[in-house]
Amino acid sequence: MAKKINEIVRILLGTFLLALSVEEFILPFSILSGGVAGIAVALEPFFHLDETIFANVLTLAFLILGRFTLGRKFILDSVLSSISYPVFTTILAHFVVPLDISPAIASLYAGLLGGIGVGIVMSTGASTGGVDIPTMILAKVFHQKIGTMAMILDGCTVLLGVIAYDLSAALIGLLSVFASSFAINRVLYAGQNSSKSVQIISDQWQTINARIRSELERGATILQAQGGYSGKERPVLLCVVSQRQYSRLLQIVHEVDKRAFIITTDASDMHGEGFTFPSPSARM
Questions:
Q1: What is the pLDDT of residues 62-121, one digit of tens each?
Q2: Partners of 261 in beta bridges
């Protein structure tokens, strides 16, 4: 029950921040920010529809799309945000505080504030509806970060606005797009460890393994592999180290065996001993 209440509070908070971004910055300054609000701003010169109402209709339409593509559970998790969003925007529309700032500054804050809100909601497994739904669909299909895919879709929306406005308006809108993408990724991946996963193939693997334990206080997993050319069995060391330790690891390997073969990949989310909680020993 406590977990569910926590999720509800986070969804409402994130949705409120998004609505505040729209009503305080995006609509008053006609910012081509992406999202349903950005689409409403871009199409307003053509259809002359109330931007708040048009954005709310789009939110409902995308929610229906999500029902058939992301499943019933996802929609149930997103209903609260999808319902509260138009409520918040309608209320906040009557309490807009006039700001004497440049459109560029407004675009930057709109992106940061809205991105934080979207990130908070998405961190619960739900969405704010609207363009978040096709964003999550495409991120899943193309195996991309949600913030990156959001930047691409929002960028397309901004380019659409060039037709209705001009290039300067689009350039200002891109500030919001980049700021929003940055904020979403920072919120979604906050607290996750950025590390390196390293595979080491060397005849001196025992010496390297010992120095990793003693000098880096990290463990290593010994994998059994077979050479594709020679057909010989040979061990492969798999070790995960922090960004700070990575250069030292390379130095150790090169000192022991200059001909060692090293494969390195980014590991963005590490859990367990030595990463999410300290350990008195280096084991893996």
A1: 777 777 776 666 666 677 887 888 889 889 988 888 888 999 999 999 999 998 998 888
A2: 201
pLDDT above 90 covers a percentage of the chain that reads 19
Please report the DSSP string for the chain in residue order.
-HHHHHHHHHHHHHHHHHHHHIIIIITTTT---SHHHHHHHHHHHHH---HHHHHHHHHHHHHHHHHHHT-HHHHHHHHHHHHHHHHHHHHHTTSPPP----HHHHHHHHHHHHHHHHHHHHTTT---STTHHHHHHHHHHHT--HHHHHHHHHHHHHHHHHHHS-HHHHHHHHHHHHHHHHHHHHHHTTT---EEEEEEE-TTHHHHHHHIIIII----EEEEEE-TTT--EEEEEEEEEEHHHHHHHHHHHHHH-TT-EEEEEEE----SBTTTB--SS---
pLDDT at 20 over 90: yes
235 DSSP β-pair partners: 224
d(CA 38, CA 132): 13
| Token pair of 117 as six digits | 């809100």
Q: What is the mean pLDDT of residues 13-26?
A: 91
Rounded CA Rg of the chain: 24
Burial class (CB in 10 A: 0-12, 13-18, 19+), 79: middle
User: Which residues touch 91 (CB under 8 Å, ≥6 apart)?
Assistant: none
pLDDT attached to residue 39: 78
With bands split at pLDDT 50, 70 and 90, how would you rate the model's confidence at 155? confident
User: Can you tell me the distance from the alpha carbon of 56 to that of 37, in angstroms, rounded to the nearest whole number?
Assistant: 9
